[in-house]
Design goal:
By secondary structure, this protein is of the alpha+beta class. The protein has 2 domains: 87 residues, Winged helix-like DNA-binding domain superfamily/Winged helix DNA-binding domain (Arc Repressor Mutant, subunit A), CATH 1.10.10; 91 residues, 2-Layer Sandwich (GMP Synthetase, Chain A, domain 3). The protein has a 4-stranded mixed beta sheet with strand order 6-5-4-7. The protein is elongated, with a radius of gyration of 18 Å. The termini are far apart.
Protein backbone atom coordinates (compact mmCIF):
# COMPACT_ATOMS: atom_id res chain seq x y z
CA UNK A 1 0.00 0.00 0.00
CA UNK A 2 2.83 2.40 0.78
CA UNK A 3 4.29 1.87 -2.70
CA UNK A 4 0.96 2.72 -4.35
CA UNK A 5 0.69 5.84 -2.24
CA UNK A 6 4.19 6.90 -3.26
CA UNK A 7 3.53 6.20 -6.94
CA UNK A 8 0.41 8.33 -7.17
CA UNK A 9 0.99 11.11 -4.67
CA UNK A 10 2.63 13.60 -7.02
CA UNK A 11 1.38 15.41 -10.13
CA UNK A 12 4.98 15.78 -11.34
CA UNK A 13 5.56 12.05 -10.89
CA UNK A 14 2.42 11.35 -12.92
CA UNK A 15 3.72 13.60 -15.71
CA UNK A 16 7.09 11.86 -15.73
CA UNK A 17 5.38 8.46 -15.85
CA UNK A 18 3.05 9.52 -18.65
CA UNK A 19 5.94 10.88 -20.72
CA UNK A 20 7.99 7.73 -20.24
CA UNK A 21 5.01 5.47 -20.99
CA UNK A 22 4.47 7.37 -24.25
CA UNK A 23 8.08 6.76 -25.25
CA UNK A 24 8.79 3.45 -23.59
CA UNK A 25 11.59 2.62 -26.02
CA UNK A 26 13.63 5.72 -25.21
CA UNK A 27 16.02 6.87 -22.50
CA UNK A 28 16.00 10.44 -21.22
CA UNK A 29 18.29 12.69 -19.24
CA UNK A 30 16.90 14.92 -16.53
CA UNK A 31 17.44 17.94 -18.78
CA UNK A 32 15.50 16.35 -21.65
CA UNK A 33 12.61 15.47 -19.36
CA UNK A 34 12.69 18.94 -17.83
CA UNK A 35 12.41 20.60 -21.25
CA UNK A 36 9.74 18.22 -22.52
CA UNK A 37 7.55 18.62 -19.43
CA UNK A 38 8.37 22.29 -18.77
CA UNK A 39 9.38 21.54 -15.18
CA UNK A 40 12.52 22.27 -13.20
CA UNK A 41 15.39 19.80 -13.34
CA UNK A 42 15.39 19.51 -9.54
CA UNK A 43 11.70 18.50 -9.51
CA UNK A 44 12.29 15.92 -12.24
CA UNK A 45 15.42 14.64 -10.48
CA UNK A 46 13.55 14.10 -7.22
CA UNK A 47 10.77 12.16 -8.97
CA UNK A 48 13.13 10.05 -11.09
CA UNK A 49 15.16 9.07 -8.01
CA UNK A 50 11.96 8.07 -6.24
CA UNK A 51 10.66 6.09 -9.26
CA UNK A 52 14.03 4.37 -9.57
CA UNK A 53 13.95 3.46 -5.87
CA UNK A 54 10.43 2.04 -6.33
CA UNK A 55 11.65 -0.12 -9.22
CA UNK A 56 9.64 1.62 -11.94
CA UNK A 57 12.63 3.24 -13.67
CA UNK A 58 16.15 2.21 -14.38
CA UNK A 59 18.87 4.80 -14.45
CA UNK A 60 22.41 4.69 -15.70
CA UNK A 61 25.16 7.21 -16.18
CA UNK A 62 25.89 7.73 -19.87
CA UNK A 63 28.62 10.26 -20.49
CA UNK A 64 28.00 13.42 -18.51
CA UNK A 65 24.36 12.69 -17.71
CA UNK A 66 22.23 10.04 -16.08
CA UNK A 67 19.55 8.57 -18.36
CA UNK A 68 16.24 7.03 -17.25
CA UNK A 69 13.84 4.54 -18.83
CA UNK A 70 10.97 2.29 -17.78
CA UNK A 71 12.09 -0.97 -16.19
CA UNK A 72 10.12 -3.39 -18.36
CA UNK A 73 11.62 -6.33 -16.44
CA UNK A 74 9.46 -5.53 -13.41
CA UNK A 75 6.22 -7.54 -13.68
CA UNK A 76 4.07 -4.64 -12.46
CA UNK A 77 5.36 -2.07 -14.99
CA UNK A 78 3.05 -3.13 -17.89
CA UNK A 79 0.08 -2.87 -15.52
CA UNK A 80 1.33 0.52 -14.34
CA UNK A 81 1.64 1.64 -17.97
CA UNK A 82 -1.98 0.60 -18.60
CA UNK A 83 -3.09 2.43 -15.45
CA UNK A 84 -1.25 5.61 -16.46
CA UNK A 85 -2.86 5.54 -19.91
CA UNK A 86 -6.28 4.88 -18.41
CA UNK A 87 -6.10 7.62 -15.80
CA UNK A 88 -4.29 10.29 -17.80
CA UNK A 89 -6.05 9.34 -21.03
CA UNK A 90 -4.83 8.21 -24.40
CA UNK A 91 -4.96 11.70 -25.96
CA UNK A 92 -2.55 13.12 -23.35
CA UNK A 93 -0.21 10.12 -23.62
CA UNK A 94 -0.36 10.32 -27.42
CA UNK A 95 0.47 14.02 -27.18
CA UNK A 96 3.58 13.13 -25.18
CA UNK A 97 4.45 10.43 -27.73
CA UNK A 98 4.33 12.97 -30.57
CA UNK A 99 6.08 15.79 -28.73
CA UNK A 100 9.28 16.88 -30.43
CA UNK A 101 8.91 14.83 -33.62
CA UNK A 102 10.87 16.73 -36.27
CA UNK A 103 8.62 18.23 -38.92
CA UNK A 104 5.31 17.42 -37.20
CA UNK A 105 3.08 20.49 -37.06
CA UNK A 106 -0.25 18.89 -36.20
CA UNK A 107 -1.86 15.55 -35.40
CA UNK A 108 -5.50 14.55 -35.06
CA UNK A 109 -7.01 11.19 -34.09
CA UNK A 110 -10.40 9.94 -35.18
CA UNK A 111 -11.81 6.72 -33.76
CA UNK A 112 -14.12 5.26 -36.39
CA UNK A 113 -15.08 1.75 -35.38
CA UNK A 114 -12.23 -0.74 -35.35
CA UNK A 115 -9.72 1.33 -37.33
CA UNK A 116 -8.46 4.60 -35.88
CA UNK A 117 -7.37 7.30 -38.31
CA UNK A 118 -4.35 9.45 -37.55
CA UNK A 119 -4.18 12.69 -39.53
CA UNK A 120 -0.71 14.21 -39.64
CA UNK A 121 0.25 17.66 -40.86
CA UNK A 122 3.87 18.59 -41.48
CA UNK A 123 7.06 17.82 -43.31
CA UNK A 124 7.92 14.41 -41.89
CA UNK A 125 10.59 12.12 -43.23
CA UNK A 126 10.01 8.39 -43.52
CA UNK A 127 11.91 7.70 -40.29
CA UNK A 128 9.77 10.15 -38.33
CA UNK A 129 6.61 8.77 -39.90
CA UNK A 130 7.63 5.24 -38.84
CA UNK A 131 8.28 6.44 -35.27
CA UNK A 132 4.86 8.11 -35.13
CA UNK A 133 3.08 5.01 -36.44
CA UNK A 134 4.94 2.73 -34.02
CA UNK A 135 4.23 4.87 -30.95
CA UNK A 136 0.59 5.51 -31.78
CA UNK A 137 -0.20 1.88 -32.59
CA UNK A 138 1.42 0.75 -29.30
CA UNK A 139 -0.50 3.27 -27.22
CA UNK A 140 -3.81 2.50 -28.96
CA UNK A 141 -2.99 -1.22 -28.74
CA UNK A 142 -3.73 -1.82 -32.42
CA UNK A 143 -1.51 -3.38 -35.07
CA UNK A 144 0.21 -0.83 -37.30
CA UNK A 145 -1.68 -2.33 -40.24
CA UNK A 146 -4.99 -1.36 -38.55
CA UNK A 147 -3.96 2.28 -38.11
CA UNK A 148 -5.08 4.48 -41.00
CA UNK A 149 -2.70 7.39 -41.58
CA UNK A 150 -3.51 10.50 -43.61
CA UNK A 151 -0.57 12.80 -44.22
CA UNK A 152 -0.71 16.41 -45.45
CA UNK A 153 2.04 18.91 -46.08
CA UNK A 154 1.25 22.27 -44.39
CA UNK A 155 0.48 24.15 -47.63
CA UNK A 156 -2.01 21.53 -48.82
CA UNK A 157 -3.63 21.39 -45.39
CA UNK A 158 -4.06 25.16 -45.20
CA UNK A 159 -5.47 25.21 -48.71
CA UNK A 160 -7.98 22.48 -47.79
CA UNK A 161 -9.02 24.39 -44.68
CA UNK A 162 -9.43 27.65 -46.62
CA UNK A 163 -11.55 25.93 -49.31
CA UNK A 164 -13.55 23.95 -46.75
CA UNK A 165 -12.56 20.88 -48.75
CA UNK A 166 -14.76 17.78 -48.22
CA UNK A 167 -11.86 16.15 -46.37
CA UNK A 168 -11.98 18.93 -43.77
CA UNK A 169 -15.79 18.70 -43.50
CA UNK A 170 -15.61 14.93 -42.98
CA UNK A 171 -12.88 15.33 -40.39
CA UNK A 172 -14.84 18.03 -38.55
CA UNK A 173 -17.95 15.82 -38.39
CA UNK A 174 -15.85 12.95 -37.01
CA UNK A 175 -14.89 15.15 -34.02
CA UNK A 176 -11.19 14.26 -33.81
CA UNK A 177 -8.97 14.53 -30.75
CA UNK A 178 -6.17 17.06 -31.18
CA UNK A 179 -2.95 15.30 -30.24
CA UNK A 180 -0.41 17.89 -31.33
CA UNK A 181 -0.27 21.16 -33.15
CA UNK A 182 -0.55 24.88 -32.98
CA UNK A 183 -4.01 26.41 -32.89
CA UNK A 184 -3.43 28.33 -36.12
CA UNK A 185 -2.61 25.08 -37.95
CA UNK A 186 -5.77 23.38 -36.73
CA UNK A 187 -8.25 26.27 -36.75
CA UNK A 188 -11.07 25.63 -39.14
CA UNK A 189 -11.53 22.09 -37.83
CA UNK A 190 -13.60 23.08 -34.80
Amino acid sequence: MDTLGELFSSRIRASVLAYLVAREEARFSLTELSRALDLSVSSIQHECYKLERLGVLKGRREGASRRYWLDREQPFVPVLMWLVMTVIGQPQVLGYALHGIDGLEGALLTMDGESPTLTLIGDLGLDELAIVQDRVSKILDVPESALNVAFYDPATWQSYVAQQHPTISALRSARPEILAGANDMLKGIF
